[in-house]
User: What shape does this take?
Amino acid sequence: MGAYLASEDGFKPPSAADFNLPPIFGDNPFTTKPIFLAFLSVILVSVFFISASRKALVVPSKLQFAGESVYSFVRNELGRDVIGHEFMRFVPYLFTLFTFILTNNIFGIVPFLQFPTMSRVSFPYVLAIITFVVFHYAAIRHKGLFPYIKEIMFPPGVPKAVYVILTPIEVATYLIVRPVTLSLRLFANMFAGHLLLLVFFLGGDYLLQGAIGLKLVAPFAFGFGIVLTFFEFMVQCLQAYLFTLLTAMFIAGALADEH
Amino acid sequence: MLNRNITPWAAGETLNPLVPHTAELIAGLVAFTLLYLVLRAKVVPKFEKAFAERTDAIAGGIERAEKAQQDAEIALQKYTSQLSEAQGEAQKIREDARVQGAAIIEDLRAKAAAEAARITAAATASIEAERQQAITSLRKEVGALATELAGKIVGEALDDQVRQSRIVDRFIADLEKSK
Assistant: This one.
């Protein structure tokens, strides 16, 4: 940020470069802020849910109730209602996915952290690859490898001539479009949201350095930045939900019998 | 364009935000796996246990309540039937008592009547016997006295038993006739 203030050739709008944070310790590429945040989220989520579930009382304490609410939301709304009777196998994965993404997203508006881990595309890539592996593996285990490939390439109930265009589309959907859209949706939302907040807060900051007229406008920039922060919170929750929901739907599709 | 990059790190990296970084891929995978293992081992089973116990507690509670209600209904039925039974029994006892009472009264009355008849009969018999005895003894004594008296008057001893008795009979018959 100091670089902006020190610059003398006018306002530099925030760009993709602002997401390329340098390693904190020397040149070690494992010591960047996003990586620390990712591990911080692991610690926070683990500590929270372990202490919430430790006693597992029939009549829950407030902490247990809070943890249970999140867990039963993922378990029932995203697991049971979407996947169906075999959902319990996938609940740990969906639960981890939701809490991990949500926590890392919310880091984007937590004071002092203020960086959404998922705006680094590597993290959504990893999650999308895991989901890709999970739902294909579930489908192969459920249907067998060749029936599954056949089902992807030649969906039943379609006239033969249509396969000419349908087969490439289906194959691309299952192998490329699903993981790519899944990861890019999350990444782009977090990236754009963080960029938007940077524009308003750095812009407001810059306006404050300017002439008196600009100084008067600055509060509006900050005010709008705060409004957008709330908006971001909504987007962060929504994207965590969406990623988990889509994963659950892919798994449901993998377990569904077409006949 | 390059001079806009703030740090050497950023300058060394590609600015394309869609290109992943190896370190972050590894770190992301490790972090996620770690969290997955922790949540799967420590959190999910505990919550599931709590859910199961809760379901059990609620279902058990309902079951117990249903059983209690059933028991209560059975007990109520039992009491009701016992009550009506007792009422019937009481009715029967009262009826029996009434009938028995009537029978006893009737019995006593008959006994009293028989006793009265018996006493009357006995008295009558005894009176009759006494009367007969009195008549016999009177007849003897009056006969003897009269005979003796008549003997004395007539001076003639009426020793003959047959005649004596005939005279007395005639005398008494005359007495009864003159009455």
Helices of chain A lie at 2-6, 33-53, 62-83, 91-106, 122-143, 145-153, 163-209, 212-255. Chain A has eight helices and no strands. Chain A touches chain B through 55 residues (CB under 8 Å). Residues 1-7 of chain A have pLDDT under 50 and may be disordered.
